[in-house]
Amino acid sequence: MTVNLTLQHASEIIGQDNVDLTLAAGASAKVSNLTVASEWLTNNTGYLVTISVNDKSGNVLSSKRAGLSVEDDWTVFPRYGIVAGSPTDQNSILVKNLEAYRKELELMKSMNINSYFFYDAYNEATDPFPEGVDSFVQKWNTWSHTQVDTKAVKELVDQVHKSGAVAMLYNMISADSNPKNPALPLAALAYNFYDSFGKKGEPMTYTIGDNPTQVYYDPANPDWQKYIAGVMKSAMDRMGFDGWQGDTIGDNRVTDYEHRNSTDEADSHMMSDSYASFINAMKDLIGEKYYITINDVNGGNDDKLAKARQDVVYNELWTNGGSVIPGRMQVAYGDLKARIDMVRNKTGKSLIVGAYMEEPGIDYTVPGGKATNGAGKDALAGKPLQADATLLVDATVAAAGGYHMSIAALANANAALNVLQSAYYPTQYLSVAKDTIRKLYNYQQFITAYENLLRGEGVTNSTQAVSTKNASGEILSKDALGVTGDQVWTFAKSGKGFSTVQMINMMGINAGWHNEEGYADNKTPDAQENLTVRLSLAGKTAQEAAKIADQVYVTSPDDWATSSMKKAQASLETDENGQPVLVISVPKLTLWNMLYIKEDTTATPVEPVTNQAGKKVDNTVTSEASSETAKSENTTVNKGSEAPTDTKPSVEAPKLDETTKPAPSVDELVNSAAVPVAIAVSETAHDKKDDNSVSNTDQGTVASDSITTPASEAASTAASTVSSEVSESVTVSSEPSETENSSEASTSESATPTTTAISESHAVVEPVASLTESESQASTSLVSETTSTIVSVAPSEVSESTSEEVILMDYQKTSIVGIDSL
User: Fold this and answer.
1) Where are the beta strands (DSSP E) in 378-527?
2) What percent of the chain has pLDDT over 90?
3) pLDDT-derived band of residue 603, with 50, 70 and 90 as boundaries?
4) What is the rounded average pLDDT of the residues 261-278?
5) Which is it for the CA torsion 92, 93, 99, 105, positive or negative?
6) What's the pLDDT at 56?
7) Which residue of 111, 153, 160, 409 could cross-link 167, Cys pair, CB 3.0 to 4.6 Å?
8) Which domains does the chain have, with CATH numbers?
9) Residue 442's pLDDT is what?
10) Torsion of Cα atoms, 565 then 567 then 569 then 573, to 10°
11) CB 172 within 8 A of CB 246
């Protein structure tokens, strides 16, 4: 029996390690020293880690796969999550719910979330955390009178830091929660030029019902800038936050106090005109140490914000916003991509998208509640969130080069994890099924592992023609913009030395992303098989095209592939102009596929590294993609009038070279198209922006620890054997697995992850067994907890000899219990 570890970047195997075992019936063994050496790793790079267990004939007994990101700057590939009040306790953040929050944060950590913003965790906009106050009730919050325990907030911020992530404090950039008694004189307020947020000439005010909730200052007002900078710096210093997630109520044409009654537009300006100067003023007043971003509601102010020193770009997108595509609103998947493309072109950054799914409408003035849309009916009927609706938005945003912020920790008694369905984050009516969480987990692994292909430096839309046909020759890619449904939306991107083709399945469904009608508007597309993708290679020579045809791969986060990158069958044809066309066979499409085409025909393949002498192998994936599910998937792996659409809606309170010998495939190397393995790392202090650290976010399951190590240090240190400070252990047992008869990946509530720890000399992959309560709460110092992964084998399935290596008769009845989770 052998335990194998493989580290892969795109199609290249970077490094491997394995340990051989001899196991007797009914016995268990602990295996150490599966190592990911720091010299294998490059900063701001995503990797796929696969761990598999094989019998002595090479058959896969069980396996897991996860994305690993090595990064010294989370803003390059932001993966944003939410912490907000609990719907179980009047939207409050309470000490008594800390354990529930911790469990959710551990799960989100395993989903590679590297940044969190704490929503509505403040007392009031102009005094977020009063000094000397342990708990406060939000007086402005008239619908639930939310309570916030500052100890709870501090402990959650600490937990975020221990995971190697950053914590952002949410607050409006120009709001005052006391409309009748604002903190600054009336001269500092913004005044409506048109009837919009109140009457013309009156202070810009947000009202819920008949209750004025917030009044707004002009972000350009220097007195306001100095005041709020001092307030926010004090709050972030005392509570340990790393930055400010600034929010806006939407754009509006305003005047200053002196010109509040003027009808001359020259005396007015848009609130968004001052976003950039406000951000830059905050950077100067608060300091570069703190991160800052502003929610540009519905986008469109990219030109204004181009000179802003904001660290990431965040847009909350609504269907009432104007699309980048002329003459449209932002209602379709393609409109989301268009906005992401615009931000990328203007700023060079990957857009964080806030796009809330379904938004169940329920009128609670009616006894028992009355649904006002299909999603509301679903919620009242107790139905969960429609999984594919969420996954399709995740796929669209990621394939376009952005990140969909959707996962939230709410300490919700009705959900192990939450997916945002409303702009008021504690109000999430639809539960999230375990299988949906499992799929979300797999998508997060994919987005992390292939981040350089999806949104790396230089990745842009390709000008090469691309299309998709079915087995009958019917063209399924009917609309390159992605605004029409009932198609396989296909678009190409290019990067340095490669291209990708993104395939989003909309067969049998419409292109609307919001899905407010819930299950009445089915979002599960018709699965496709045996597709053909044609990609123009115009400009390539015949020789170059032939080389490229041998460097085509397919992968998907969906269950048929679970991030496994497989060699695809590809051939060449010529178009009417005699230019080469790459013809690629795609065996299956569920929701989202990505084709990876290596176009660098001169590069020498990376020579893989093995941690065990004599086990060096070729590093290029060469096996053809198969429509069959891999063996391992059969195992259990335990504005004002001028811009009315830029305002937030009212809301409740991705031919062989004959001179080259065919190389073994990844499937041959790890003998599996595995499902995810968790990555976590041991704990170190978090030093905010000055840290310049590698963040190896763990990628696997419900609980783990993390570490940050300076990127320069991690990249330069040599591989070595495992020291006493970081150890890895795999326990192999011949006891039967409790889930041995399961035929597909399943959610295990008790399992804990495999971890990777990067020390000064190396990184260690550490499969972790399910911990007892006391073990799971054990503190860590320099290293991760010493735990183990259990590989279970029923005694009846092993050979009678207790001195020989176990021979497994039924591979579906063996599981890696310790790293089972999702």
Assistant:
1) 403-404, 407-409, 418-419, 460-461, 466-469, 488-495, 498-505
2) 67
3) low
4) 97
5) positive
6) 84
7) 160
8) 2-73+669-816 (no CATH), 85-293 (3.20.20.80), 457-606+620-638 (2.60.40.1180)
9) 98
10) 90
11) yes
